[in-house]
Specification:
Length: about 220
């Protein structure tokens, strides 16, 4: 399957994921007693107060359990992918690394977190080398198959194996977007793949770094 097809499918998945997020927001807004929605100043989809994507506790490549509270004080950006991904995953990580560099000293307050959807092939060594290729400060998490199912449900992440010419030459269709957390570890934004580029992402992260967490 060529990279163009993967890109088109990934973009479609990103749109579907955004639609799901929008639907969840509509359901919450359906309460007549809820405060009226305000216009978001973010480029990404504002999911502040979402009742999903709030818990992340998975082993890193050293086997140490990591959770969102480990990164308080930083804006954490969580992306689900796999190292054999032809374009969406490396493009997303390269863009985040570019954003981190563009922020200068504030870039040290940005934490990239890559969660593999392919623990079958993505060994700890491969994952370490993969994320370090983009930024030495990025970390990779490698869930067990059971942990992967649970975290995919928690984050509403879609993934599906697409058979290749051989058993180990498969690709993965998957949700193409990043979850972004404020400095208090609260989910705030969903950044769709291909929407806005590095400058839009940098603008959103600057705003989160500058503001207090929502009450």
């Amino acid at each position: 399957m060529d990279s163009v097809l993967i890109s088109r499918r990934a973009l479609a998945l990103a749109g579907a994921s955004a639609a799901l997020l929008a639907l969840a927001g509509c359901n919450r807004a359906g309460n007549a007693d809820a405060p009226k929605a305000t216009v978001s100043t973010f480029h990404a989809v504002d999911i502040t107060g979402a009742d999903y994507a709030g818990k992340l506790e998975l082993p890193d490549v050293q086997g140490q359990m990591r959770k969102l509270s480990d990164f308080k004080g930083k804006v954490a950006v969580v992306f689900f992918g796999y190292t054999h991904c032809p374009d969406v995953c490396p493009t997303t990580l390269a863009e985040l690394a570019e954003v981190k560099r563009s922020l200068g000293a504030d870039g040290e307050r940005v934490q990239g977190i890559f969660v593999t959807l392919d623990p079958e092939r993505d060994t700890p060594e491969m994952l370490r080398a993969y994320v370090n290729n983009f930024d030495a400060g990025f970390i990779a998490l490698r869930p067990s198959p059971e942990q992967l199912k649970a975290v995919a449900r928690e984050f509403k992440v879609f993934y599906m194996k697409v058979p290749g010419k051989t058993d180990d030459a498969y690709t993965l269709d998957h949700t193409a977007g990043s979850y972004i957390y404020d400095t208090q570890g609260r989910v705030r934004l969903f950044s769709r793949y291909g929407a806005g580029g590095a400058q839009a992402l940098a603008d959103d992260i600057k705003k989160l770094l500058a503001q207090a967490a929502p009450a």
